[in-house]
Amino acid sequence: MQTVDFKHIELSDGDKLLDLGCGEGRHVIAAYLEKNIQAVGVDLDFNDLKTTADKFSEFCQSENAEKSFGLSVANALSLPFEDNTFDVIICSEVLEHIPDFESVLTEIERILLPGGTFIASVPRAWPERICWYFSSAYHQVEGGHLRIFDASQLRSQIEARGFYHYHRHWAHALHSPFWWLKCMFWDSQEESLLIKLYHKLLVWDLMQRPWLTRSLEALLNPIMGKSIVMYFNKPKSAR
C-alpha cells in the first residue's frame, strides 16, 4: 500500500533516494523497482528493517549493476549521511511520531541535494481527530502519534526553509472508516466481526485492485483521505 505517488516525482536513473522511517519497506522497494537508482531505507526499528529485507528478496535484481538497495538502523534526528547526498527523500507517516519533528526537517534539508525532491505525508487532521476522540490508547501507545498536524501549517514550516511546494493529494480514504472502527472498539477489536470483515475488504482491494473500489477511493480521497501527501523541491541555489 503506497501513500506516495511516484508519477509526481521526477525520479531518474542514477538518482539516490532515501526512505526516512521506511517501516516495512513499501516505498523504498517500490522506488527500487521504478528506476535504476540507489534506494536506501532507514528506520529505528530493526524488526521492521528485517521484514523489509525479507520482502525485498522477492524483488531483488542482482543482475542489474546499475541499481542498488540498502537498509540501516538510524535516528532521524542525526542521520549518518553527508550533506547534499540524496536526490529524493520520502518521509511518509513519520513526523507525527517524533517530538522534535523540526529537527528532522533540518536533517532532511541538510542531506537533500539542491534541486532535490522532498515528499512528506502525515495523517489528515479531521479523520485523525475522530480516532483520538474514540480512543486515547490509539495515540498514547509507545511509538504512537504525538500530534495532529495542521497540514497548512506544516506546509508553511517546510516552505519557510526555502522549499517550493508543487503538488498535494490525499490517500487511503477507504482506510479512514477502518481506523474509526478500530478506535471505537479498541479493547475488543480482535473479536469484532465488523472489523474483521472490513479488513478482508481492504486486503481484497489491495491485492485485486478492482475498478469499483479504486474509483470509489479516488472519489473519496479529497473528502476523507486518511493521509495528506505534499511534494516539495529544494532550491538549486542558496537562499
Structural overview:
- The chain is α/β, with parallel strands linked by helices and 239 residues long.
- 39% of the residues lie in helices and 21% in strands.
- The protein contains nine helices and seven strands.
- The protein has helices at residues 26-34, 46-56, 101-111, 125-134, 137-140, 151-159, 175-184, 193-208, 211-224; strands at residues 16-20, 38-43, 68-73, 86-92, 112-123, 164-171, 227-233.
- A seven-stranded mixed sheet has the order 3-2-1-4-5-7-6, sandwiched between helices.
- The longest helix has 16 residues, at 193-208.
- It starts with 15 loop residues before the first strand and ends in a 6-residue tail after the last strand.
Summed up:
This protein is an alpha/beta fold and 239 residues long.
Low-confidence spans: none
The biggest beta sheet reads: 7 strands, mixed
Note the run of SSEs as H and E. EHEHEEHEHHHEHHHE
How would you state the average pLDDT, rounded? 96
How are the SSEs ordered, and which strands pair?
Layout: E1 16-20, H1 26-34, E2 38-43, H2 46-56, E3 68-73, E4 86-92, H3 101-111, E5 112-123, H4 125-134, H5 137-140, H6 151-159, E6 164-171, H7 175-184, H8 193-208, H9 211-224, E7 227-233
Parallel strand pairs: 1-2, 1-4, 2-3, 4-5
Antiparallel strand pairs: 5-7, 6-7
Helix pairs in contact: 4-7, 7-8
Labels describing this entry:
239 residues; alpha/beta; 7-stranded mixed sheet; 9 helices; 21% strand; globular
